[in-house]
Fold:
Amino acid sequence: MSEPSKPIGVRSVLIVGVGGQGILLASRLLASAAIGAGFDVKISEVHGMAQRGGSVVTHVRLGTKVHSPLVEMGTADFVVAFEKLEALRWLPYARPGATVIVNDLEIPPLPVILGAERYPTDIIRRLAAGGRRVVLVDAQGMARSAGNARCANTAIMGMLARRLDLGITEERWQVAVGDVAPPGTAEVNWKAFCLGYTCESYK
Structure:
């Protein structure tokens, strides 16, 4: 694929999950690849609940010209969720017809652990309502296949990269993975990214 030579409208991406899943690294990977390809990128990271187990969200907007880093409710082209309940929590930000990429992983929040609430059993059905496209992915399985279970975040970003339709080259993505991966993990993270890029949803 080749990088674009004509103006590209703004893509709005919401990346969500819980603390410890590598959400911030994922958003920086997307931003690094897009900037390297010549796009204007705005990013807003919410750190308030970034401790392990707390909800984390980042807003990434990219295109030929971007004026605001914040994805407004009902406007996200992509909601990328590293955990199923977080996908449902942030679903109001998705526009009609948006793509929801969701990791097939359940991390029960504290009310569920304490027995005060039940973990929803109809999440995928609710995500798909309103014409949204749901892409369900076993990111943990791909990360283990790549050789490091902690690379699930880059596997998920590979799935997003394939669907962004921005013409960012494979070389740009590989450089971006190398730029943001922890020391000594660039090769395994790139393998996880490629597995995600070539994977089909099994929904």
